[in-house]
Amino acid sequence: MEPPLARPNRSGWLKGLGLVVLGIASGVALSVVAHWPRSEVVYRSDQPATVAYVDDSKHLLALVRESTLLGDSHHIVVGRDPSLSYGHRVGIETSAASVKTTEWTTAGVRVLFDTGHELFIPARYFIGGR
To answer: Is 129 left (phi over 0), alpha (psi -120 to 50) or beta?
Structure first.
């Protein structure tokens, strides 16, 4: 009598496939976490003591770079919240431009970029907790 034909070891093959799928999923998850949206303040200016606004608050201006999986974006935030989670936001398009200086006046704040561009934000948009 002949011995029965040996069956292929399917459980070992499925286990190996499962490990490959798990490895791919872990790699994708780590890549997403590594590139998760994050913010970086690339410029900050505090309202000088010589300038006062009607709300009697100290204000600040920041140029913030937001990095996401889709790329980077930039915006200016002006307000009185030091964490920058609340304030007047202005989206700007910039690739390599950086802020040269800011000029605070009672009328508002002027941002001067090293490219020669200027952005003026009237005080009424950021005083009073906006």
So the answer is: left
